[in-house]
Write a structure and sequence with these properties.
The protein is of the alpha/beta class. The chain has a single domain, classed as Alpha/Beta hydrolase fold, catalytic domain (Rossmann fold, 3-Layer(aba) Sandwich), CATH 3.40.50.1820. About 35% of the residues lie in helices and about 20% in strands. The protein is built from eight helices and eight strands, in the order βββαβααβαβαβαβαα. The longest helix has 19 residues. The radius of gyration is 16 Å and the shape is globular. The model has no long low-confidence stretch (mean pLDDT about 95).
């Protein structure tokens, strides 16, 4: 295992203030949030357990769109984001890889066929990281992917990566632990021909990139730097 299954830390969140400027529509087989106009440069955000209409992730999509990307957030949770009344372990039963993998695979395949973009990248936060990795093989639809504090990724999925990947990690993380991060680094190094980057941010914990407390200067810096790193990485391809 390159990262542990989602845990209690995955359910903690802070609300980021702001008004999203994109729109919701049904397309490519899923309800989606979309922002930006350049449909030759596409970023798909594969969300964590809070889903595609979570204010924080919509604001991130709007920010990414400023860099001349068309950014789209599909509903990969079947309109069932985690709520405060949900039991997390029971919620996970309805969102296993057997359920979620076909959703993501079908969405990406349809998007690529209909849009035929020059660049198709994905950003996977926590829960969504596994499904970004699964589509990053040489025969997969993604040209590159970015992961932030990933969960539930197997080492075999890392070893199957065939295209560029950037991973942003938190210093304190019970899911993507130091040991598992090092295991991931070794696996990526053995791939030889795959471009990769791993960045470790001090003073932050799992979830910082999309739901951390940005009143904390360390978290605010890490969140903003992660987004800039992702854009810079994607721009190369």
């Amino acid at each position: 295992m390159a990262s542990n299954p989602p845990g209690a830390c995955c359910t903690k969140t802070n609300f980021h203030e702001g008004t999203p400027i994109g729109i919701f529509k049904h397309q490519y087989g899923r309800d989606t949030y979309e922002t930006g106009t350049n449909k030759k440069r596409v970023i798909v955000i594969l969300t964590d357990i809070f889903g595609h209409n979570y204010n924080n992730v919509m604001l991130i999509a709007d920010e990414l769109a400023k860099y001349d990307y068309y950014v789209i957030i599909p509903d990969i949770l079947n309109n069932d984001p985690l709520s405060s009344s949900d039991d997390f372990s029971e919620w996970l039963v309805n969102h296993t890889p057997e359920i979620t993998t076909p959703i993501v695979d079908g969405f990406l395949a349809t998007l690529k066929k209909e849009l035929d973009p020059k660049f198709l990248g994905a950003i996977g936060y926590c829960f969504g990281a596994k499904y970004a990795i699964q589509n990053l093989t040489k025969s997969g639809p993604l040209n590159a992917a970015a992961l932030a504090h990933p969960s539930f990724v197997s080492i075999d999925e890392v070893k199957a990566i065939g295209n560029p990947v950037i991973i942003s990690a938190a210093e304190t993380d019970d899911i993507f632990t130091t040991e598992l991060r090092h295991e991931t680094e070794l696996a990526l190094a053995e791939l030889k021909t795959v471009r990769y980057q791993i960045s470790l941010f001090s003073g932050v914990s799992h979830g910082y990139a999309c739901r951390g407390d940005i009143s904390d200067p360390s978290v605010k810096y890490a969140k903003e730097k992660t987004l800039l790193d992702q854009v810079s990485f994607f721009d190369q391809f």
